[in-house]
Design a protein that fits this description.
By secondary structure, the chain is an alpha/beta fold. It contains nine helices and eleven strands. It has helices at 16-29, 69-79, 97-110, 125-131, 139-155, 192-201, 219-235, 272-285, 299-312, and strands at residues 2-6, 33-36, 84-87, 90-91, 115-120, 161-162, 167-168, 185-188, 204-206, 244-249, 287-292. α3 links the parallel β4 (90-91) and β5.
């Protein structure tokens, strides 16, 4: 099981120097991958419901300045040598299909095959409007088409695609990604459409456990969702091992409430012994990667949190 960590995409911690220190520090501590989030612009007035808070309000701490995600991924790749880089997640409809496929292929080639493509269909309608994307209501279909188009570009000698939102033929797309078939696709989201997209198109399912509408905050809830996913994978005609399991953690430790909404133990609450037991149980279910947001207001504080987690939790795995 690989353990990952979140890199900031805005604010003082996202300066070139601090990103380098965090990325290289995490790599030296033995973490397997770093995640970078995606917003191109933050609208001033947001009416869309944010999926990961009880109130549906987008946190004020997330509304500040932001780097462009894929540019930051390439920067971090250039400053590291072994660390995998995960888009967490890239909102697929935000960028034109062919251009995005080319950027991702370039990152994969120049990083030596260290890119993982975490994807989502998006939730912030006002951002879609600002970016002049295809209609927000069509984002699910757009996401599926763009992913299929990228796979065609990454694998076919003479790529050709005819869809409602993207079409191309008679072109060359080289070089192909280093990773055969392109970067692994981790499908984010916890809803029915997200799980169905995972079953059809994903290499891994990449949910966050604390979506109030689709909570996966206990082992029992997570097991039930995994069972649904595996049933859908079989119905899609794919092998049972075609889709692996990954998981994102927003908060962990003693400050997290000990009980989930179903009365069971809340995953990633409590001390290091308890969290290590959660990770072992998830690994037994087939989870191959888990990433966390480590607390701290400075580079030194974040790296100290990561070091403590390595020594108190990862050492027990």
């Amino acid at each position: 099981m690989q353990i990952g960590f979140n890199l900031p995409s805005g604010g003082p911690l996202a300066s070139a120097e601090n990103l380098t220190l965090l990325a290289q520090g995490g790599e030296a501590l033995g973490f397997g991958y770093a995640t970078i989030s995606d917003h191109v612009v933050i609208p001033s007035n947001i009416h869309a419901k944010y999926p990961y808070t009880d109130s549906g309000e987008f946190p004020s701490t997330a509304r500040g300045e932001r780097h462009e995600q894929l540019t930051e991924v390439m920067f971090v790749a250039a400053r590291t040598s072994k660390l995998r880089l995960v888009t967490s997640v890239m909102v697929v409809p935000h960028r034109p299909a062919l251009l995005t496929a080319k950027i991702l292929s370039t990152i994969d080639v120049l990083s030596g095959g260290r890119l993982t493509l975490g994807i989502g269909a998006g939730w912030l309608e006002e951002e879609f409007v600002a970016l002049q994307t295809p209609p927000f209501a069509a984002r699910g279909k757009v996401t599926d088409e763009y992913l299929l188009a990228a796979k065609e570009l990454w694998t076919a000698k003479a790529p050709r695609f005819e869809g409602e939102h993207v079409r191309f033929a008679d072109l060359s797309f080289e070089p192909k990604p280093v990773q055969p078939g392109g970067p692994p696709i981790w499908v984010g989201g916890e809803s029915g459409p997200a799980i169905r997209r995972t079953a059809r198109l994903g290499d891994a399912w990449y949910p966050i456990g604390t979506n109030p509408s689709f909570p996966l905050d206990s082992l029992a809830r997570y097991q039930a969702a995994v069972a649904r996913l595996r049933k859908l994978v079989a119905e899609a005609g794919r092998p049972a091992d075609a889709v692996t399991l990954t998981y994102r953690v927003q908060k962990y430790g003693p400050e997290v409430p000990p009980l989930a909404g179903d009365g069971e133990r809340r995953l990633f609450s409590g001390n290091g012994v308890a969290i290590a037991a959660d990770l072992k149980a998830m690994r037994a279910l087939g989870v191959t990667a888990v990433d966390l947001t480590f607390p701290g207001a400075t580079v030194e504080e974040i790296l100290a949190s990561m070091r403590a987690f390595r020594d108190d939790v990862m050492a027990r795995l």
